[in-house]
Amino acid sequence: MKRAALITGATSGIGLEIAKLHASNHGNLILIGRNNDKLLSLASEIHKQYNISTYILCEDLSDIGAAQRIYDYVVSNNIKVEYLINNAGFGGIDEFYKQDINLMQEMINVNITTLTCLTRLFLPHMIDNRHGRILNISSIASIMPGPLQAIYYASKSYVSSLTNAISEELKGTGVSITNIMPGPTKSNFGARSGMDKTIIFKKTASSKDVAAKAYESMLMGKRNSYAGVGLLEKIVLYTIPLLPKSLVLRVTKKLQVKLKD
Ligand SMILES: NC(=O)c1ccc[n+]([C@@H]2O[C@H](COP(=O)([O-])OP(=O)(O)OC[C@H]3O[C@@H](n4cnc5c(N)ncnc54)[C@H](OP(=O)(O)O)[C@@H]3O)[C@@H](O)[C@H]2O)c1
Question: Is the terminal CB of the chain with fewer CB neighbours within 10 Å at N or C?
């Protein structure tokens, strides 16, 4: 039985960098994305460079059945998932009442539903083997409500809350689950969400640095970790829950407004 790390959203940004890191540690990969051409070229590039086994699976993670199909694929190919990396996700700026209802559902399905179902499906095997690591990519957005990105921020609050709760349940099982909260990071996320036009994205961390911090935190079995966030920003983030909600909401909204070109 081959052992592997399963990575969702492996075709760009943070997921792609985590895939390369794991391959450089001689770990086999199951790469999930919805662009088959990108997956094929990535798998061949990684195989050539690191000589590991790479499986690819083209799935739209906004499809409610995606998690079960991924799990069935893994079982039917006799692969043991040692690392589950729930990385795929996206955001989008607009007032809540103007959001496209289909896109809104897609966001909830990718950021919340599929992540939850994959975690639920793969955990029992890990617990039986007393071995396994799960990495959930949340965001610093999980710490506060996000006017103008209400669904994205709420989805990341869900991820942080779910991950922390499960981590307590997993104590003593030999399995860990890690919640990573990246700050603004250079990837396709900024352009897709419209965040690249905001003041928050004036300074971004590299996907490579964020991936390295996330991967290391997962290997160490940490419960929570920031990535791509400086010391001063961390101090601000720690104080947010203590500040008046009206102030936090006002400032967060201002930070999401797109700057003029
Ligand atoms: N970049 C930031 O500033 C930042 C900050 C905090 C947290 N995060 C989180 O970090 C994670 C990775 O984002 P990133 O910055 O690396 O952005 P990215 O470059 O846009 O990568 C996102 C990945 O998710 C995949 N994905 C999105 N929707 C999908 C779907 N319906 N089905 C299958 N795959 C899908 C994308 O595939 P396609 O190329 O096919 O869309 C891509 O591979 C996300 O969960 C994001 O919320 C990012």
Answer: C
